[in-house]
């Protein structure tokens, strides 16, 4: 007597590993079901609603291994807030295949009228073109910004001479740097952040230098 095993699809005899079961006799397979690749865009289909997701859409048994999907925007020509208002589980529906996704094993169906399908398609193309146009505009603006001449950019007025930190200058053969008193006498209230940092750096160096010189004198 053959042993039996239980699966989700029923109870079947344990197959003999030495004997290959023909596909037509294999009860574990979806006999009579079509593959996703058997459907094509524009094909008219009909089937029974097997599942309804109120805010998303519904799934229809169209004789495929995967149920056909109808998005909420493709249920009927009029606006639908809740799919359950227009379609119920067990309803027979007719539609047209608008997308076949082989990798996802999904067939998308539209139950709209032919004129409405064309209108939706035109809107989709228009949105895509508008998106592409904006992308090109951003690309051109970015490219033009890189080529903008410095002379075209408005420059801020230079700070007053009294606030600028004097750089070291050459006096004969040596560099003459500002002293601590000279640096502390400069008004720093109107300085920018970078100028303040440079002033503080020069002041620290001047104080260190004068301290070293005082130590040598002692």
From TrEMBL:
GO molecular function term, any single one: mRNA binding
GO biological process: translation
Annotated transmembrane regions: none
Compositionally biased residues, Basic and acidic residues: 17-27, 122-139
Top-rank taxon: Eukaryota
Disordered: annotated span: 1-27, 122-171
Record-annotated S1 motif domain positions: 42-112
PANTHER family with a match to the protein in the record: 30S RIBOSOMAL PROTEIN S1, S1 RNA-BINDING DOMAIN-CONTAINING PROTEIN 1
Name of the protein this chain belongs to: S1 motif domain-containing protein
Species name: Triparma retinervis
Lineage: Eukaryota, Sar, Stramenopiles, Ochrophyta, Bolidophyceae
């Amino acid at each position: 007597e053959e042993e039996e095993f239980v699966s989700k699809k029923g109870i079947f005899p344990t197959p003999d590993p030495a004997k290959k079961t023909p596909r037509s006799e294999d009860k574990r397979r979806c006999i009579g079901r079509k593959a996703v690749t058997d459907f094509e865009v524009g094909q008219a289909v009909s089937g029974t609603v097997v599942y309804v997701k109120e805010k998303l859409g519904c799934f229809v048994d169209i004789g495929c291994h995967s149920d056909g999907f109808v998005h909420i925007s493709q249920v009927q020509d009029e606006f639908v807030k809740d799919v359950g208002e227009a379609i119920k589980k067990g309803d027979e529906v007719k539609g047209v295949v608008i997308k076949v996704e082989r990798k996802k094993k999904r067939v998308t169906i539209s139950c709209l009228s032919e004129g409405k399908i064309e209108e939706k398609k035109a809107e989709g193309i228009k949105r895509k073109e508008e998106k592409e146009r904006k992308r090109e505009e951003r690309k051109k603006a970015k490219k033009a910004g890189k080529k903008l001449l410095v002379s075209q950019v408005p420059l801020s007025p230079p700070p007053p001479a009294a606030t600028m930190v004097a750089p070291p200058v050459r006096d004969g053969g040596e560099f003459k740097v500002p002293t601590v008193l000279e640096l502390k006498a400069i008004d720093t209230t109107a300085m920018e952040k970078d100028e303040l940092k440079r002033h503080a750096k020069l002041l620290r160096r001047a104080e260190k230098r004068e301290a070293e010189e005082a130590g040598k004198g002692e």
